[in-house]
Write a structure and sequence with these properties.
elongated, alpha+beta, Gyrase A, domain 2, 17% strand, 5-stranded antiparallel sheet
């Protein structure tokens, strides 16, 4: 918590109180941008691909195509990062644009992580839901009630 306060104070002292520093995302200071990564109404963000996967960055950028023109470039300065340049189609504040993009980036990364962790289970549930029979226990659907393979008819 103390680190966040110090970082916030440093941002205020640089004159960027409305811009939020987030782990894995920073304002890109390129040749065509000012010291805060902003040129006119455009903003360039440097996204660390060791924290956010390339797939998550692409999905987040795609979700912004209704509000912004999005340009993505692999960073030539540092491997393991992407530059995402956002130019709003309508008037949006730079701070709001950055905040919304960071939220969407986090959302897409969590979705990617959950898919990796539970994707097989989800596939099995969907397959079972649309299957005509039981995929896990064929005896349950094809078994003979007289044979009672599950022992349901036995009393204790």
């Amino acid at each position: 918590m103390e680190d966040i306060r110090r970082q916030d104070e440093a941002n205020r002292s640089e004159g960027s109180a409305d811009l939020i520093a987030v782990a894995g995302v920073s304002l890109h200071r390129g040749e065509r941008t000012d010291s805060l990564g902003v040129l006119d109404d455009r903003v360039a963000l440097e996204v660390d691909t060791t924290i956010y996967g390339q797939e998550a960055v692409l999905r987040a950028a795609y979700k912004f195509t209704d509000r912004c023109y999005v340009f993505i470039e692999g960073d030539k300065i540092r491997a393991g990062s992407l530059i995402v340049a956002l130019t709003p189609k309508a008037s949006l504040s730079v701070g709001a644009l950055i905040g919304e993009f960071c939220n969407e980036l986090l959302d897409q990364q969590v979705r990617e992580s959950l898919s990796r962790e539970f994707g097989d289970i989800r596939t099995l549930i969907v397959a079972q839901a649309f299957a005509e029979g039981n995929l896990l226990d064929k005896e349950r659907d094809e078994g003979d009630y007289l044979a009672d393979p599950l022992g349901i008819g036995k009393r204790r």
